[in-house]
Amino acid sequence: MSDRGRFRGWSVALAITIAMALHDALAFAQPAPQGWRPQRPVELMVGAAPGGSIDLTARVLQRTLDERKLVGVPTLVVNRPGAGQGLAWAQMIDRSKTVPAIAMGGPNLVSNPVTGLHPIDHTQVTTLAVLFDDYMAIAVRADSPIRSMREAIERLRKDPGALSIGVAPSLGAGAHTGGVVALRAGGVDVKNARFVVYKSAGEAILAVIAGDLDMAVGTVSNFPPHLQSGRIRLVAVTSGRRLGGVMANVPTLREQGIDGVYTNWRSVIGPKSMPREQIAFWEEALGAVVKSDEWQRDLERNYWTGNFLTGEAAARYVDEQARQFRDIYSVLGKNAP
């Protein structure tokens, strides 16, 4: 072969080698597939009116998702109160057929079908994440002769109707269920306990202060202002261990020999048919939210206890909450369907 032929052959081989190298380099430089992302504004359904604790949680989620650009499109909070949040969940399921839609979840997902408020339960949605535990506190007036939950339990074991106990906003809601858990763990005949329903925890607390009620049960965040003013005394919290801040001196039920724990947990849910790639997107986005400084400050401010769970762990957690609730209401003579 002539020198010219050998040169031509070497040039062709070199060109092929360079082309292949460039192809590999460009292929390596291409970004990995990003998976699903919402292309339209996300609707976050809230089954309560603006201003309540569920709505405030949703607003923190919305703000963090938007400010940190975790979704890529705006997040819109849509309030749809009624039927124990069931109306919001029904709207979420319907809207998700045409737009990206998720919703706030919680204990009503396991209680509504039992109490008859709404038929949608945890088995008809996808739990994207459990966010935190929101415990209950039990209060008496500052000058009440009841000095501890143990003393209250001893009186109620002798006469279940001896003390009036304020709860809100309905029987079967978190405050009532937390009270039932505490009394039942102490051996009280809860079917004959005297629960009085108020529209809000604030009204129940004011009734205790006025002397119209013996006790009130509500989420912990309702009590610090009244505790600091010296108008009430907290005799127990339903957490597994003591909380922080101004709640640090309040004993748990277990510390008083009453083996009861109850949480008004909060979650984020999607439609039952949500594809796996969408679930993965929300798990990652919500995981970023709960690590944010804004979220941690909100947990501390409201005396919430972080309990972030996704996937199978979240599903098991909610299943266990459902089992606990059915067990509680079977004792009250109300059986789950």
Q: How would you summarize this macromolecular structure in one to three sentences?
A:
Helices cover 42% and strands 18% of the residues. With 337 residues, the protein is α/β, with parallel strands linked by helices.
Describe this structure in words.
Residues 10-33 have low confidence and may be disordered. The N and C termini lie far apart (90 Å). This protein is an alpha/beta fold and 337 residues long. Helix 4 packs parallel to helix 11 (311-331). The protein has two domains: 42-133 and 265-331, D-Maltodextrin-Binding Protein, domain 2; 136-256, D-Maltodextrin-Binding Protein, domain 2 (3-Layer(aba) Sandwich). The strands form two sheets. Strands 2-1-3-10-4-11 form a six-stranded mixed sheet, sandwiched between helices. It has a five-stranded mixed sheet with strand order 7-6-8-5-9. It has eleven helices and eleven strands.
Q: Name the overall outline.
A: globular
Biggest sheet strand order reads 2-1-3-10-4-11
Gap between N and C termini: 90 Å
Low-pLDDT ranges: 10-33
Percent range of helical residues:
40-55%
Topology:
Elements lengths: L2 H27 L12 E5 L6 H15 L7 E5 L6 H10 L5 E5 L2 H8 L9 E9 L2 E6 L7 H10 L5 E4 L6 H12 L8 E4 L3 H10 L4 E5 L4 H5 L3 E6 L28 E6 L4 H15 L2 H10 L2 E5 L1 H21 L6
Parallel strand pairs: 1-2, 1-3, 6-7, 6-8
Antiparallel strand pairs: 3-10, 4-10, 4-11, 5-8, 5-9
